[in-house]
TrEMBL record, chain A:
Residue intervals of the UBC core domain: 24-171
Lineage: Eukaryota, Metazoa, Spiralia, Gnathifera, Rotifera
Organism of provenance: Didymodactylos carnosus
Acidic residues bias locations: 174-186
Region Disordered, annotated ranges: 1-21, 170-210
Name of the protein in question: UBC core domain-containing protein
Alphabetical list of SMART domains matching this protein: UBCc
TrEMBL record, chain B:
Keyword RNA-binding: no
GO biological process, one term: anaphase-promoting complex-dependent catabolic process
Residues in RING-type domain copies: 42-85
Gene3D superfamilies assigned: Zinc/RING finger domain, C3HC4 (zinc finger) (3.30.40.10)
Protein name: Anaphase-promoting complex subunit 11
Species of provenance: Didymodactylos carnosus
Keyword line: Cell cycle, Cell division, Metal-binding, Mitosis, Ubl conjugation pathway, Zinc, Zinc-finger
Alphabetical list of InterPro entries matching this protein: RING-box_E3_Ubiquitin_Ligase, RING-H2_APC11, Znf_RING, Znf_RING/FYVE/PHD
Length: 210, 92
């Protein structure tokens, strides 16, 4: 639906659907989604949590190669409001992180998400920035002072703890996978990011068919 | 040859349909804020054209007038171009 919709000239779409009154934020988010699907960016993936609410997205960032984050997949939620893109989204890591600029509750201290936000940024550029923040922390504005001190004074221990967290997140993923197999309903309630809801449904249908 | 013919072919116009195309002059295809093409309207307008004009900044960046005004009005302190973060001044 999204791709067809945005490829048609707007006037046509609106005149055939006079009832459609999508706000600027919704339109922009649909364009962001389309851009993400058209220009795949390595290491990031994001989509709305469900088809009825385009303001809430799940995102996944994979750790940049050749870094301590390399083997991790990190899940985030992005909350937009109707003033997007004039206001930044609220972004939070769901995966437990140890990073000088990530608060223990998962929210981020990143200038472009606060006072240096710009209306020309989009979902993909924001996620690319967050991904590069992983390997390039700014110890001068710490959000997690313990992590910042560790990063500054005992890099080896910092790296060890980061790896430990990543390994822990694998175990949690395994646990969730097992739960999913035992209970389909539970899977639906989980907030685990999936690429799109439709893909999961298709895979499930295929599994059922087999 | 044709000129020397006595019976020249005559054409009589019964109807004439002029067709014109228009395009905004901008340094980009689409607005950096709403991402809609300049030749379409901003995401708040129904129809492209004079009602949804394109504004040029002194920094050379262009936006739909509605989009850039909304962005500038939403900024409390600095009124900056979303692309280059220079102070936004529109070219009249």
């Amino acid at each position: 639906m999204n791709s067809n919709f945005s490829e048609q000239p707007r006037a046509t779409v609106l005149s055939s659907n006079p009832q459609t009154t999508l706000g600027q934020a919704q339109r922009r988010l649909m364009r962001d989604l389309r851009d993400l699907n058209l220009n795949k960016v390595e290491g990031i993936c994001a989509s709305p949590v469900d088809a009825h609410n385009i303001y809430l997205w799940n995102a996944i960032i994979t750790g940049p190669p050749d870094s301590i984050f390399e083997d991790g997949t990190f899940q985030l939620t992005m909350k937009f409001n109707e003033n997007y893109p004039n206001q930044p989204p609220e972004i939070r890591f769901v995966t437990k992180m140890l990073h000088p600029n990530i608060y223990t509750d998962g929210s981020l201290c990143l200038d472009i998400l606060q006072n240096r936000w710009s209306a020309s940024l989009d979902v993909s550029s924001v996620l690319i920035s967050i991904r590069s923040l992983l390997i390039d922390p700014n110890p001068n504005s710490p959000a997690n002072s313990a992590a910042a001190i560790l990063y500054r004074d005992n890099r080896r221990e910092y790296e060890r703890q980061v790896r430990e967290l990543i390994e822990e997140s694998w175990r949690e993923d395994l646990d969730t996978d097992n739960d999913d197999n035992s209970d389909d309903e539970e899977m639906k309630n989980k907030t685990r990011a999936t690429t799109t809801t439709t893909t999961t449904n298709t895979t499930r249908e295929q599994e059922n068919a087999e | 040859m044709i000129n020397s013919c006595k019976n020249k072919m005559r054409i009589r116009f019964k109807e004439f349909n002029g067709v014109a195309i228009w395009k905004w002059i901008a340094n980009d295809d689409s607005c950096g804020i709403c991402r809609m093409p300049f030749d379409a309207s901003c995401s708040e307008c129904r129809y492209p054209g004079n009602d949804c004009p394109v504004l040029h900044g002194e920094c050379s960046h262009c936006y739909h007038e509605h989009c850039i005004k909304k962005w500038i009005n939403s900024q409390q302190t600095n009124k900056l171009c979303p692309m280059c973060r220079q102070e936004w001044k529109s070219v009249p």
